[in-house]
Write a structure and sequence with these properties.
heterotrimer, A alpha/beta, B alpha/beta, C alpha/beta, A: Rossmann fold, six-stranded parallel beta sheet, four-stranded mixed beta sheet, B: Rossmann fold, four-stranded parallel beta sheet, 8 strands, globular
Chain lengths: 454, 250, 199
């Protein structure tokens, strides 16, 4: 069955690994807590970040035009892509016309979303993901399982086997430092051979036409300083109005993502390097549609810090791949049904509505409210099947009639007390839980007895 | 002051003694309490599983049933959150709803409000693991949510318990992680729900808890079900049940 | 392509959002008792190391004594106080910097809250050197130190440079089991030399 629950159950079949995954991410969440607590103005920063994004989104057409104009002025080329196909063909055309056959790419969830790698590879262009985690999942032939920590689901021994196979490192190597060293050596060569670098964009500044990209490894900068052609793929929601808005977001981003005060590199590009080219591709791919939805529009504020994934008790115990979507976790469960409701209908239900995501989110997206809103829509549109609708109508009918409700409740409790153990264990509640001890009288029955003085 | 006791459907049917305990505590303060018998369910289970239209009908019903009370007190943070935080989107804002929002209280919050922080004359010589209900924490803002960097709001449940003689609290490594109940989630996502619950139990047991306490019966039924299947020596009690037991043994 | 532009903009306009206010950014800088000490801490948390020298005249000597430079054969330097070293001939393109031992660059301001230094390389060689070198040394005037990123942005005018970068510590990754490894693709060490008297 194509749903989160069955994939999550498969993940949980390995209890030891589930615990390992949960602890690794909780550790990141704790680092985030410590980093956030260092700033007494943390909540005010979140307010400001949310408001700046809300404002920008409410005036997005103006800011897009302003950004374009200023980026052109700075010497960049600006392109527009309505959807994933347009982005892919646009980038391919740019590369082909310059005879590029080798590309290095740094992390970009947008190009994941648009399927850029397979598109280019199918046309004979070698694309090397250079972020270490991205490289690991690329070599394994799987998608990232986290938007900031792409290989968080993989153990070091598995990386060792992979590198042994793919890069000829010694068998049995599982020391992260030495494994990183192996990848560094391998990727150096690829940086030097590359004819173009593709990056994502963390922030675009409307008033200057500049773009900002954050990274820790230095791959963004090697990938744009060595090859002469830089293609930056940017969702239209990445804009902020002014340069002085940047620190608000930069102070929140790394602290929320990994608990660092700032990433190792925060690179600002204004136009191409001397003798080179900078092409900025502004991508819509469903964003403008989301913008017109009152309930979900604020999801476009997302700065992809990953904090809502790290804090999500369900994500931590089901793994990114259980979401079968480009972006997993709470924000993915809001964004993905907007792209394809049928395919991702189970995601908004993969959530206990605990609300931690909304409290951790640096731009204050009310994630759990949006997940709840999706549930209503998906059920109304019939994506959850007729049984659920029937059950809901039946329950509502009973609950609107106190006497019927009381009678059925009593019947249910009586039956429940007589349920044989084997039947209980076959049921989703009873598989791992005992039924509560069922009382003979409900509260209302007790109340009635008291009222009648018996 | 006309006070209505709102007893959520699953408390009514599955754990009536929590309703009785709430009643005793309120009457113990000399308050006169009514139980409007037309009440059934606030609609939360339907709302959370996507049945908006049905939930909406129950919400309107709730507004009718509880229209004429000065306070509506409920021994479930989750149901209070549904009424005071979720109804707005469901039935639209109105003076009628605003009045209900303003008058509805989670039991512990109401008790603290009424007795103005006086310690309770009760004894409960046990180590208690206080399970923070997500909706108490992040909807009603009762207690400190670990995500936020701000002076924590008061936690009435802890305040009430802390005033009992002989009580101690289990220290938790993850003080406010969800137990994994989540309504239909407990059934539909059984594997993750189970794991979340077991992880909470392990944390409470590592902290030496003998009693698992919460402001929400739903969390407790899930955790207790898991604990009993594994014969773990943990009693799951609603805060109201603890307070009554403590008063009785004082 | 013009069609795409128009249709994206039209789609955005169709959303018909009501304008929301743009907040003014006002975050008062914290009063740090010891800003240099704080910078040293945050820099070291980021994996870098702080060195200090009392005067601008002392910079050359201090640099020459740094481990990252004392033994270095190939050095690209962007500061006058230290000469580049090119034993195999001067580099022409970034690719010539493959075996670069150390890069030296000037930077300012330094940011106490996060250990970052704003660096604007002079040319593409200087820029590539920042990331290709095994070791990086940043020379920063003490007077440039600010407490938060807000104040840093108030002075840098980022858009005046084609490329500018906040650098905080050496290159690093934690992509294998969250184990922190220093020296991912870029420099394995970062030394910040803060010069000048206490103001
Ligand atoms: S939704 Fe918020 S917390 Fe989640 S990735 Fe986006 S910005 Fe971060």
């Amino acid at each position: 069955m194509n749903d989160h629950a069955s994939r999550a159950a498969a993940f949980n079949a390995d209890a030891e690994r589930t615990g390992w995954h949960d602890r690794a991410l909780w550790h990141v969440r704790e680092r985030r807590d410590r980093a956030a607590a260092q700033l007494p103005e943390w909540e005010a920063l979140r307010d400001a970040a949310g408001e700046i994004k809300a404002h920008t989104l409410s005036q997005l057409d103006l800011y897009l035009e302003r950004f374009e104009q200023n980026a052109l002025q700075a010497g960049a080329s600006v392109h527009w892509a309505r959807d994933a196909d347009e982005l892919c063909s646009l980038v391919h055309a740019l590369l082909e016309s310059r005879g590029v056959s080798k590309v290095v790419k740094s992390k970009s969830m947008l190009t994941e979303e648009c399927g850029l790698n397979p598109h280019l590879e199918a046309r004979g262009i070698e694309v090397v993901d250079t972020d270490l985690g991205e490289r690991i999942v690329q070599l394994r032939g799987e998608p990232p399982s986290h938007i900031v920590l792409p290989a968080i689901h993989i153990k070091k021994e598995e990386v060792g086997e992979l590198f042994h196979r793919e890069m000829g490192s010694p068998e049995g190597l599982d020391d992260p430092t030495r494994l990183t060293e192996v990848a560094r050596g391998d990727l150096r060569q690829r940086f030097l051979a590359a004819e173009a670098g593709i990056t994502g964009v963390n922030f675009g500044v409307a008033e200057t036409g500049g773009i900002v990209v954050c990274s820790n490894e230095g791959n963004v900068d090697l990938g744009t300083a060595l090859p002469p052609l830089h293609i930056a793929c940017m969702g239209i929601e990445k804009l902020v109005p002014r340069e002085r808005d940047l620190p608000v977001f930069l102070r929140l981003l790394a602290r929320s993502a990994t608990g660092q005060a700032i990433t190792s590199y925060t690179s600002h590009f204004h136009g191409p390097r001397p003798g080179g080219e900078l092409h900025i591709v502004l991508v819509d791919n469903g964003r403008s549609q989301l913008l017109s939805s009152e309930a979900f529009e604020s999801a476009l504020r997302c700065i992809r810090c990953g904090a809502c994934l790290n804090t999500c008790p369900v994500y931590r115990r089901s793994g990114g791949h259980s979401y079968a979507s480009v972006i997993p976790g709470p924000i993915g469960s809001v964004l993905e049904p907007a792209r394809d409701a049928e395919a991702h209908a189970s995601l908004p239900f993969a959530c206990t509505l605990c609300g931690s995501c909304g409290d951790v989110c640096p731009v204050k997206i009310p994630l759990s409210q949006q997940l709840l809103a999706w549930r209503g829509r998906l059920v109304e549109r019939g994506h959850l099947g007729a049984t659920r609708r029937f059950a809901q109508r039946f329950a509502a009918a009973v609950l609107a009639r106190p006497r019927l409700y009381a009678a059925l409740g009593a019947l249910g409790r009586a039956l429940g007390r007589r349920t044989p153990a084997f039947l209980l264990r076959a049921n989703a509640w009873g598989r791992s839980r005992e039924l509560p001890e069922l009382p003979h009288r409900s509260f209302r029955a007790e109340w009635a007895r008291r009222r009648d003085g018996s | 002051m006309r006070i209505a006791l709102f007893v959520p459907c699953y408390v009514d049917q599955l754990r009536p003694r929590v309703g009785m305990a709430a009643l005793r505590l309120l009457e113990g303060l000399g308050l006169e309490v009514e139980f409007p018998e037309a009440q059934t369910c606030c609609g939360q289970p339907l709302l959370n599983s996507g049945g908006r239209r049905e939930a909406c009908r129950l919400a309107h019903r709730f507004l009718d049933v509880f229209a004429n009370y000065d306070r509506i007190v409920c021994p479930s943070a989750s149901c209070v959150a549904t009424v005071t935080r979720r109804y707005r989107e469901l039935v639209g804002e109105s003076p009628r709803l605003a009045a209900i929002e303003e008058r509805t209280r989670e039991l512990c919050a109401f008790l603290v409000e009424q007795q103005g922080g006086q310690p309770l004359a009760g004894r409960f010589p046990h180590r208690v693991g206080l399970h923070a209900s997500c909706h108490a924490l992040r909807e009603l803002r009762q207690g400190a949510a670990s995500e936020l960097v701000q002076p924590p709001p008061a936690d009435p449940a802890r305040q009430l318990l802390a005033s009992l003689e002989g009580i101690s609290f289990a220290e938790l490594r993850r003080g406010d992680e969800c137990c994994g109940f989540g309504g239909a989630f407990a059934l539909e996502e059984e594997a993750v729900s189970r794991r979340m619950g077991l992880d909470r139990l392990a944390d409470h047991r590592a902290g030496g808890a003998e009693v698992l306490a919460s402001t929400d019966v739903s969390c407790l039924l899930h955790l207790e079900g898991l604990a009993r299947r594994r014969s773990l020596p943990l009693r799951a009690m609603h805060v109201a049940e603890i307070l009554v037991e403590a008063l009785d043994s004082a | 392509m013009a069609r795409s532009r128009e249709s994206v903009l039209a789609a955005v306009r169709r959303s018909g959002a009501v304008e929301r206010p743009l907040p003014e950014i006002r975050f008062a800088p914290p009063l740090l008792a010891d800003p240099v000490g704080r910078f040293g801490e945050t820099l070291s948390e980021a994996g870098g190391e702080l060195r200090q020298v009392a005067s601008a005249e002392g910079v050359g000597g201090a640099l020459a004594g740094l481990p990252a430079l004392a033994e270095a054969r190939r050095v690209v330097s962007g500061v006058a106080a230290f000469a580049s070293r090119h034993p195999d001939g001067a580099p022409v393109v970034p690719h010539d910097l493959l075996n670069l031992d150390t890069a030296v660059a000037a930077g300012a301001p330094a940011v106490a809250e996060n250990g970052a230094v704003w660096v604007v390389p002079g040319d593409i060689l200087g820029r590539a050197a920042l990331f290709l070198a095994e070791h990086l040394v940043l020379v920063v005037p003490r007077t440039s130190l600010v407490s938060t990123l807000h104040e840093a942005y108030a002075v840098i005018s980022a858009h005046k440079a084609r490329f500018g970068c906040f650098i905080a510590g050496p290159s690093k990754t934690a992509d294998i089991e969250q184990a922190l490894v220093i020296g991912a693709h870029g420099p394995r060490t970062l030394t910040v030399l803060l010069y000048g008297e206490e103001p």
